[in-house]
Amino acid sequence: MLALLLAVGADLSLGRTVLVGLAVLAGQLSVGWCNDLVDRDRDRVVARSDKPLATGAVSARAVRFACGSAVAALVPLSLACGWAAGVVHILAVASAWAYNLWLKSTVWSWLPYAFSFGALVVFVSLAGEPSRLPPWWMPAAGALLGVGAHLVNVLPDLAEDEATGVHGLPHRIGARRLPAVATAVLAAGSLVVAIGTGLARVGSVAALAAVAALVIVALTGRGRAPFLAAVGIALVDVVLLASG
Question: Which of 24, 183, 184, 232 could be 3's S-S partner, Cβ–Cβ 3.0 to 4.6 Å?
């Protein structure tokens, strides 16, 4: 969804927007299926009923075939968007695979998210006609959004991850401090986009006001409120980035 919003915001042609969407879809499918294969045993330990591979509803062979097919489609679809754009996107997907295969349980678990989200912004911009690099603040904001998304995504699964030996950066930060850290990272992303697009813009001011309100909820709320507020900030960041 972010890629399509970025493509629309960058005024890509319909054909190029479709190519970008298909390339990103292939990449995301490969990453998701790779993750399911790597985490199959962990998902079984914690009885993840939402994972067909873990429950036995789908065979590992079928998932491997689907994953390989997605990778096979990813390369030509990415390169069809332009050589430079294609290489950037393939590296972004490779970074996400590195998270699945190695970095997920390390203190560097945030790095693939930062790289891949920042690279996605660069990919969409390079896929334009003419091809061009985005302004510095767009990949910077994308990287912050990626790190914030990583921290927020892990929040509901901290206990399950701990039980299966996953100790990435969010787990080292700890459940008590994680909502505040995630909120700070996402709010920083909002500020970067607002600075890049111009603080005087009405949209930027309104977005920052909404983020400020959500930050207060994230830092003072109870139960699921901090998590939902952090998700809300992430959504504001996506809209800001796509409209930049």
Answer: 24
**Under a CB-based contact definition with an 8 Å cutoff, are residues 78 and 120 in contact?**
no
The whole-angstrom separation of Cα 179 and Cα 202 is 28
Q: What burial class does residue 108 get, using C-beta atoms within 10 Å of its C-beta: 0-12 exposed, 13-18 middle, 19+ buried?
A: middle
Q: How confident is the model at residue 244 (pLDDT cuts 50, 70, 90)?
A: low
How far out from the chain centre does Cα 171 lie? 18
CA–chain centroid gap for 10, Å, is 19
Whole-structure pTM value? 0.91
Domains of the chain: 1-132 (1.10.357.140), 135-244 (1.20.120)
pLDDT digits (tens, 9 = 90+) for 179-201: 889 999 999 998 898 888 775 56
